[in-house]
Design goal:
The complex is a heterodimer of chains A (291) and B (165). Chain A is of the alpha+beta class and 291 residues long. Chain A folds into 3 domains: 46 residues, Uridine Diphospho-n-acetylenolpyruvylglucosamine Reductase, domain 2 (2-Layer Sandwich), CATH 3.30.43.10; 107 residues, Uridine Diphospho-n-acetylenolpyruvylglucosamine Reductase, domain 3; 111 residues, CO dehydrogenase flavoprotein, C-terminal domain (Enolase-like, domain 1, 2-Layer Sandwich), CATH 3.30.390.50. Chain A has 11 helices and 14 strands. Chain B has 165 residues and is an alpha+beta fold. In chain B, 33% of the residues lie in helices and 16% in strands. A 5-stranded mixed sheet of chain B has the order 2-1-5-3-4, with helices on both faces. In chain B, α2 crosses α5. The chains are: A alpha+beta (291), B alpha+beta (165).
């Protein structure tokens, strides 16, 4: 189908965009369009106004500090995928992006758009969950920061107001010797995950796990952070048996079922993907730390 | 609510030719190319970004023209399947597709070509797997893909040997 009628606005600055969203009724910001355009074409959304953010240069760009990667909300996924600096500082981000849609959609799709759309099976929200990303938003009442833990309030629903715009997504960096892994099971490359797992591990010189993170995508209405698994890993020797036992805890997650994939199969995949993600993370931990 | 359908005048370059046209702001770029510019080589399949038939090169980058508005092309440079051949001389990839049974009905072909032209520009020596991943967002119901993959590898080899851009 075709998009419904709407009025089109293409502000050149962020402050103009904020002003438009503050004053227009039933307005929708348009980022890369790889989710909103299908929703318009299928008339799942019927905005009176579309505020196109693609002309706002200040919303694009990557900055790497000592402690985090800061990505402007309108930065194209492709730009991040091919950033040598991010490959060095935060390789799991590149690994996750390889699963995001296709070449043609990553050329247009943005980091902020994917985070806002908050599809539970999408890779970037799952990674943001694992890494405790911070989301910067701005609206008529000023700017604020939202920790990813507080970001999803339900299925595809972020805790941002209708008149707010995401301006930046920041991913905290782990030490260089940390190991990472993004594992995904989907029927075809580029499909949304049936289940995905994002993990990072730090291992001390004695071979004990000193820090761990694990998040699951595709399993429930929002990405799931597996704190129980992380707690079971800390202080343990990094062995296949440790990873197997910890990943087994994922079998208890409350998973959703649909016409293609049952809840119990998602629980099974949650265990398998977690185990693989933890094992691969360990295999990539700094050589100095491996025993 | 202002329900009036807005129109805007846009100026853009398609296949090296400059155009300036008034368009409805809700018209997709795919429909603009087909209905306003009569460049019907760009095919419209699913209209929600799944089939890849409408893929064009937007400032040299592959993009789904059904997921863009025509107004967003204002000031940009586009290449559609009509812009790939050099006069009567087919692009090496077009030639290879015809020689390797890389198409039958031809519906997916414009999207395959634009996607693969970008791939070969960025990676002149792709593996079969690289090609598979590149066309993972383009559906073909005739060929089983194998002909498209062998055509791409053949075209890549010829382009490397011939120094074709």
């Amino acid at each position: 189908m075709k998009p419904p009628p709407f009025s089109y606005h293409d502000p050149a600055t962020l402050s103009q965009a904020v002003e438009l969203l503050a004053t227009l009724d039933n307005a929708k910001p348009l980022a890369g369009g790889q989710s909103l355009m299908p929703m318009l074409n299928m008339r799942f959304v019927l905005p009176d106004h579309v505020v196109d953010l693609n002309g706002i240069a200040e919303l694009s760009g990557v900055r790497i500090t000592e402690s985090r990667v800061e990505i402007g909300a309108m930065t194209r996924q492709r730009e991040v995928e091919f950033s040598a600096e991010i490959a060095q500082a935060c390789p799991i981000l590149i690994e996750a992006l390889h699963h995001v849609g296709h070449r043609q959609t990553r050329n247009r799709g943005t980091i902020g758009g994917s985070i806002c759309h908050l599809d539970p099976a999408a890779e970037l929200p799952t990674l943001a969950c694992a890494l405790d990303a911070v989301i910067d938003v701005i609206g008529p009442n000023g700017a604020r920061q939202i920790a990813f833990a507080d970001f999803p309030v339900g299925y595809m629903t972020p805790s941002i107001e209708l008149n707010e715009i995401v301006t930046r997504v920041s991913f905290p960096l782990w030490p260089r010797e940390a190991g990472h892994s993004f594992q995904e099971f989907a029927r075809r490359h580029g499909d949304f995950a049936i289940v995905s797992a994002a993990a990072m591990l730090l291992v001390d010189p004695a071979g004990r796990i000193s820090r761990a993170t694990l998040a699951l995508g595709g399993v429930a209405a929002t990405p799931l952070r597996m704190h129980e698994v992380e707690a079971a890993l800390i202080g343990q020797m990094a062995t296949p048996e440790t990873f197997r036992a910890a990943a087994e805890l994922c079998r208890k997650v409350e998973a959703v079922g649909d016409v293609y994939v049952s809840a119990s199969y998602r629980q099974h995949l949650a265990v398998v993907m977690s185990k693989r993600a933890l094992a691969q993370s360990f295999s990539r931990c700094g050589a100095m730390q491996k025993h | 609510m202002d329900s009036a359908v807005d129109t805007r005048t846009i100026s853009l370059t398609v296949n090296g030719k400059a155009y300036s046209k008034a368009v409805s702001v809700r018209m997709t770029l795919a429909d603009f190319l087909r209905h306003e510019l009569r460049l019907t080589g760009t095919h419209v399949g699913c209209e929600h970004g799944v089939c890849g038939a409408c893929t064009i090169l937007f400032d040299g980058m592959s993009a789904r023209s059904c997921l863009m508005l025509a107004v967003q092309a204002n000031g940009h440079e586009l290449t559609t399947v009509e812009g790939l051949a050099n006069g009567d001389e087919m692009h090496p990839l077009q030639q290879a597709l015809s020689e390797h049974h890389g198409l039958q009905c031809g519906f997916c072909t414009p999207g395959m070509l634009t996607t693969l032209v970008e791939l070969l520009r960025d990676n002149p020596s792709p593996s079969a797997d690289d090609v598979r991943i590149a066309i993972s967002g383009n559906l073909c119901r005739c060929t089983g893909y194998e002909g498209i993959i062998s055509a791409t590898l053949d075209a890549a080899e010829k382009m490397r040997a011939g120094g074709v851009k």
